[in-house]
């Protein structure tokens, strides 16, 4: 087998291209930018296979918000074919930045906030990291509430009215708050055991959740004697201008659903055994799973319409209609595993690393995860998913636009300016190649702010048939001149930020530092 080679700057390059610190160069200095969770993963510990990444995506894609994405689009007037097509296309698009970002993780064994240091500077990396962490904490709150709701509703079927109609506190029965707390504690116990425990959990969670979803399909099909009329329901939008007005902002919203992971995917790919493993695992896991899951949700919902006279899009509400105690327990376990698998992987791992990056001496991965869990509860963002207009256009659209700008800067820097070459030790050394101006690359910050303004500056609320505003923004947009760009938020943010960053880097003194690309 080929020997590893010195790559300069105290690092070694392996025959497959993966890079690690050279042990002969000594340990990284102990400073305010280093701790055990942020250090590069040695090649010997990068063991995740194609199946591990595939299982990760299957586990993350099979969750309640993913299930109800199609319902949100149908509620906006699409038929099931248009909804599934929109979701499939969005996930093919978002797979591209996912793989491009993931390359850095596998190549250098570094998490997202350390990867961001190359473009933003050692201190400046906290800006995109905290934006990403805030979004993850909000998602954590949404998913944790959904998991607690699953415990509450399905346990109520077994324990009776005394559980479901318990005394209220804060607008909800105290038993629902208890369910919420129980689910939160389960999440914290799993994440406290570290990334290896997460990998093992995802490995068995993925096939279990698939089996649970298929069992729900078989149950409703048998009960319905076939599928209901939803599959033959025509689109309220048609394929003309009415459809395209909804399609593009909906597409950006669907991209925004996973735009969070397109940034912090290095948090997982840093454990990849090879680039082939992370590329194959993600390509097989993300677009296929999301599309099939959307189709599965449509089929099950169609069956529910035939049985109950109205479509039941929420799988928890549908499972709560079961009468068999064994079926209810199985449904409860499936809901718990499905929600746990996505919430821990997608919404706790990222802010844990991001917060550790902010205060490495005080916060490690486990402490960061606990802080993220507490913030996620304090935000109470589950109200965002109550209205599809707010959920898709406001929440997913705005989040996607902001995170698209971060991705634009990072990928332009890594792939265009640096040609994927980084120096690991410099990512942890104040005053080094990635220090820029007092730890900040002002060009990256300027590109981020410009791209963000273009992406979300025109955010606006729609008006329904009764003239009622749907959302928190002005009808004419925050900045009316930018309103036409708002429907393309993620794409505008990505392209705009990348273009501005490359233009600024081309100015005298704005190029990559020589020591960063030896």
Furnish the topology, listing elements before pairings.
Layout: E1 5-6, E2 11-13, E3 19-21, H1 50-61, H2 64-75, H3 80-108, H4 112-120, H5 126-159, H6 161-164, E4 168-169, E5 172-173, H7 174-191, H8 195-224, H9 241-264, H10 266-269, H11 275-308, H12 315-319, H13 325-347, H14 349-358, H15 365-379, H16 388-417, H17 442-456, E6 462-463, E7 469-470, H18 483-486, H19 489-505
Antiparallel strand pairs: 1-2, 2-3, 4-5, 6-7
Helix pairs in contact: 1-8, 1-11, 1-13, 2-3, 2-11, 3-9, 3-11, 3-16, 4-5, 4-16, 5-7, 5-13, 5-14, 5-15, 5-16, 7-13, 8-11, 8-13, 9-16, 14-15, 16-17, 16-19, 17-19
Structural features:
518 residues, mainly alpha, three-stranded antiparallel beta sheet, two-stranded antiparallel ribbon, 19 helices
Question: How would you sum up this structure, described in words?
Answer:
The protein has 518 residues and is mainly alpha-helical. The chain is 64% helix and 3% strand. It has 19 helices and 7 strands. The protein has helices spanning 50-61, 64-75, 80-108, 112-120, 126-159, 161-164, 174-191, 195-224, 241-264, 266-269, 275-308, 315-319, 325-347, 349-358, 365-379, 388-417, 442-456, 483-486, 489-505; strands spanning 5-6, 11-13, 19-21, 168-169, 172-173, 462-463, 469-470. The radius of gyration is 23 Å and the shape is globular.
Number of helices: 19
* Cα separation of the termini: 26 Å
Oligomer state equals single chain
Strand content: under 5%
Helical percentage: 55-70%
> How many extended strands?
7
Q: Give unreliable regions as ranges.
A: 512-518
Q: Tell me the Rg in angstroms.
A: 23 Å
Largest sheet strand order: 1-2-3
Mean pLDDT, as a whole number? 83
Secondary-structure element string: EEEHHHHHHEEHHHHHHHHHHHEEHH
Category from helices, strands and their pairing: mainly alpha
Silhouette: globular
Largest sheet: 3 strands, antiparallel
């Amino acid at each position: 087998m080929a020997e590893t080679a010195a790559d300069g700057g105290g690092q070694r390059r392996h025959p497959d291209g993966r890079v690690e610190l050279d042990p002969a160069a000594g340990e990284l200095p102990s400073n305010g930018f280093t701790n055990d969770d942020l250090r590069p993963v040695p090649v010997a510990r990068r063991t995740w296979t194609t199946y591990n990444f595939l299982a990760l995506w299957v586990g993350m894609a099979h969750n309640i918000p993913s299930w109800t994405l199609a319902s949100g689009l149908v509620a906006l007037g699409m038929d099931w074919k248009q909804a599934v097509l929109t979701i499939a296309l969005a996930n093919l698009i978002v797979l591209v930045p996912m793989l491009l970002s993931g390359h850095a993780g596998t190549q250098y064994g570094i998490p997202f906030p350390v990867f961001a240091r190359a473009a933003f500077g050692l201190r400046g990396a906290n800006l995109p990291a905290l934006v990403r962490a805030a979004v993850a904490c909000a998602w954590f709150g949404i998913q944790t509430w959904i998991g607690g709701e699953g415990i509450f509703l399905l346990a109520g079927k077994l324990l009776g009215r005394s559980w479901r109609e318990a005394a209220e506190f804060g607008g909800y029965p105290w038993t629902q708050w208890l369910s919420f707390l129980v689910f939160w504690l389960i999440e914290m116990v799993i994440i406290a055991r570290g990334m290896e425990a997460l990998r093992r959990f995802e490995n068995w969670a993925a096939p279990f959740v698939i089996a649970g979803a298929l069992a729900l399909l078989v149950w409703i099909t048998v009960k319905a004697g076939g599928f209901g009329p939803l599959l033959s329901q025509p689109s309220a939008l048609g394929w003309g201008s009415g459809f395209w007005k909804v399609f593009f902002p909906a597409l950006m919203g669907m991209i925004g659903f996973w735009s969070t992971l397109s940034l912090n995917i290095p948090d997982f790919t840093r454990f990849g055994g090879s680039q082939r493993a992370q590329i194959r695992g993600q390509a097989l896991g993300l677009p296929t799973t999301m599309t099939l899951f959307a189709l599965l949700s449509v089929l099950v919902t169609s069956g529910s319409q035939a049985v109950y006279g109205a479509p039941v899009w929420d799988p928890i509400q549908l499972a709560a209609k079961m009468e068999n105690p064994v079926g209810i327990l199985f449904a409860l376990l499936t809901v718990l595993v499905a929600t746990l698998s996505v919430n821990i992987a997608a919404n706790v791992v990222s802010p844990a690393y991001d917060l550790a990056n902010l205060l490495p001496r005080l916060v490690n991965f486990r402490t960061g995860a606990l802080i993220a869990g507490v913030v996620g509860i304090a935000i109470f963002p589950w109200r965002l998913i109550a209205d599809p207009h707010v959920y898709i256009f406001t929440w997913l659209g705005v989040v996607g636009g902001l995170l698209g700008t971060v991705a634009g800067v990072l990928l332009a820097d890594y792939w265009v300016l640096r040609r994927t070459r980084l120096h690991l030790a410099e990512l942890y050394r104040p005053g080094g190649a990635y220090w820029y101006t007092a730890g900040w690359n002002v060009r990256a910050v300027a590109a981020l702010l410009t791209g963000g303004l273009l992406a979300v500056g025109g955010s606006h609320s729609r008006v329904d048939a009764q003239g009622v505003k749907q959302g928190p923004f002005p009808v004419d947009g925050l900045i009316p001149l930018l309103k036409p760009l708002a429907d393309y938020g993620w794409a505008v943010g990505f392209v705009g930020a990348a273009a501005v960053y490359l233009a600024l880097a081309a100015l005298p003194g704005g190029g990559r530092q020589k020591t960063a690309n030896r």
